[in-house]
Queue: 4 jobs
Job 1
Amino acid sequence: QVQLVESGGGLVQPGGSLRLSCAASGSIISVYTMGWYRQAPGKQRELVATITRSGNTNYADSVKGRFAISRMNVKTTALQMNSLKPEDTAVYYCNAQVLTTTTTSNYWGQGTQVTVSS
């Protein structure tokens, strides 16, 4: 069984910063691409940022220059969010492509709420 556990969400004022973290655990041989997605009320889930095992990154246009994704080790990733805007308010989900003993599958975390409001 594979689990992704996120932490670091909360309430922040516009212009502020937050750092989200995600750790994968379980019967893992390796973790390939990890990423962050978000879903605001009434909207579809959207890509925020991804990072490969080799460190290649990809960002949504709306967060470029403000957010930075990093990989601390094979099983953990973080999202540093700066200059936050009210439109960044959403539930943020960690995603990972995980290789286990039987297959490679896509896993999701439970989500962490980020609220940007004065």
Job 2
Amino acid sequence: QVHLVESGGGLVEAGGSLKLSCAASGASIRNHDMAWFRQAPGKEREFVARISWEGGTTYADSLEGRFAIAIHNADNMVYLQMNNLKSEDTAVYYCAAKHYSLVTYTYWGQGTQVTVSS
């Protein structure tokens, strides 16, 4: 069982940066794929970024290289660095985890709000 807690959200002006953190507990995430998703008001939850248990990364095409996901296995932490933020990045951001052998993300955090003012 992996328990995830996000932090680092807040209000930022367009063009600014934020770094989200995801603290995992209950089990090591070394053999887990970790990801960030987001859900904007009135929209479905969408994929943002993923880092595999082997360290490979994948990003949503719409991000245009502005975000970066990183993992620190020793501390059981996952990060999402968000640069050049736009109003359309406003959403609740969720951290998710799954064992590398699974297809569906099985563990989710409670989310952290990111609001970008234009």
Job 3
Amino acid sequence: QVQLVESGGGLVQAGGSLKLSCVASGIIFRINTMAWHRQAPGKQRELVASITGEGSTNYADSVKGRFTISRDNAKNTVYLQMNSLKPEDTAVYYCSAQAPFSTRFWGRGTQVTVSS
């Protein structure tokens, strides 16, 4: 059974930092592209950042230079370091995992709230 469990969300002031973690089980972690997505109230879910099994990364323009995605294959964990947070970063953040030619699995999400 695949499980993705996010943690690290919370309330932070604008300009602050948070680090999200997502621990995966039930998958061959090293072959999965891991990603962070977010969904703000009334908006569609959007891709924030992704990282392949080889470590190649991709970021949404809105977070480039502020967020960093990384992974630890030994710990089956993907991270999202978020710096210089803005109120518009407020959303539920979801972790996903997708192996080549396979379905995407989702975590339940963690709330990030940035106050102005």
Job 4
Amino acid sequence: QVQLGESGGGLVQAGGSLRLSCAASKSIFSFNTMAWYRQAPGKQRELVAEITSAGSTNYTNSVKGRFTLSRDNAKNTVYLQMDSLQPEDTAVYYCYAAEVKNWGLYEYWGQGTQVTVSS
């Protein structure tokens, strides 16, 4: 069973920065996509940023220019650098990975890490 372990959440003032880490239990080369989602209280879970196996990245409009997704293949880890944080970024952030194998799609989620931005 693939496991994704997140870390790096916390409380920060508006304008501050945090870096989230997502460590996978196996080589991230096996995943077609890795991503960060977030869910704020009372809202649906939304995609924040994603990276494909080819290295292409995609960001939701609200975080473009502020968040940066990167990966360290040797450490099987994906990072989300979050700068210029705003109170509306407050949410539980989830790491996500998907792989296609044996003609099926397998999806994995981390347990989530809380990010709270105070005004």
